[in-house]
Give the backbone structure.
Amino acid sequence: MHIITLGSETDFEGWRKAARALALQGIAPRDVTWNVRGTDPELFDSRSDPLPENSQGGAFNVPAQFVEMAQTAILHRAPERFALLYRLLWRLRINHDLLSLATDPDVARIRDMAKAVRRDEHKMHAFVRFREIGRERNSHFVAWFEPDHHIVELAAPFFMRRFADMEWSILTPDLCAHWDGHALSFTSGVSRDEAPSEDRLEEFWRSYYTSIFNPARLKVKAMRAEMPKKYWRNLPEASLIKPLIASAARVSHSMIAAEATAPNKPQRREQPMARKSSSSDNLATLREEAADCRACPLWKDATQTVFGEGPAHAPIMLVGEQPGDKEDLAGKPFVGPAGQMLDRALKEAGIDRAKVYVTNAVKHFKFVPRGKIRLHQKPNTPEIRACRSWYERELAALNPTLVVAMGATAAQSVFGKITPIQKNRGRIVDLDDGRKALVTVHPSYLLRLPDADAKAREYEHFVADLKIAAKLLGASARAA
Ligand code: URA
């Protein structure tokens, strides 16, 4: 019997080296025992037989798909995974196509293990909640999480990218991950008592959750499947779930019965202002003029025109679709949930929002009232066309190096025609007027994605698009 003791629960390289040496010497799976150092003090603990020498210099190959799957499956908590992986490797030497046999019990078990690890990783991405300890300059964010499998090292880079500007620690019983703003590090697991439970962000989470909870869209079954109960005790919003579900039917009935909230409209002139000469346009006069725009009927129900905002010589002009509910009330673009998503992505891409000009293709909020809610409606082509002259005049007044069109409505306005997003995104395009443009998705598309994994992936893609803008600007600033 050969005893192999791996360095840790996630020691894939150790397993790979041992498995290769054993297989080359023809040592059958039933003759190998796999251990992990420090996990069983009763056992010889770190006893490990020397790896057999490959004196004949033989070699064998396994499909790349196996290596990929093994790297994931080895993170499963089942103690038999090392032996199972070795058995599969052993069999693959003779039957190279074994992985295509979905009904083979070893193949099916390893696939299930890899799947469970991936699922656990996604749950960690979705359900880690940081609590702030310390204040301002000394603040540090700490989260407690109990993964099903050994996924901390796998999941940590996601948090590093997402929360690059915070110093944080994720504590788990297996392993703790730490980010100090420069490097990721790992220390041994701790007990739950070492994680903070309450802080000033708690209330923020609860009010955020209450505000995004839509009782009319409640699907308890789907919610339970997405957010299994075992995660609830680490979620600040968990205490709200039961009361919100219990009151959902009553609240949505009263929402339907209630009158639409009358928007708080500022006093407006009946007649539109006369159009001023565009040669003298500057952003302040344009804003004033646009406040009385009647070019399409959307002004009638909206609270006010939401004009663009940003420095008069900003090198980037970001164009969205139209103001949402929060923007309509505030009179400023991108201040609601899509705006927060945009702010985060800009920061991650290295772009300072205060230095860019942010506007919308359509400058009035289009909605239908549903009880107390004003439901966003996509602007149609005549509305986009009617508003385009504001975009053109803003563009002329600002004269940016780059226009970033976020989403289909923005792209239609920027290019003057319907422009598919996925086909055109992520590359610099020359506009007819000699300026440059970049197409990407709208941040609210990311907010709408129901699947945490897809959301994380698409968010990274969005940030990557914005980095193209940052790079172009860096290059043109250096050339200037
Ligand atoms: N969505 C937009 O397109 N613009 C905003 O200002 C807010 C949300």
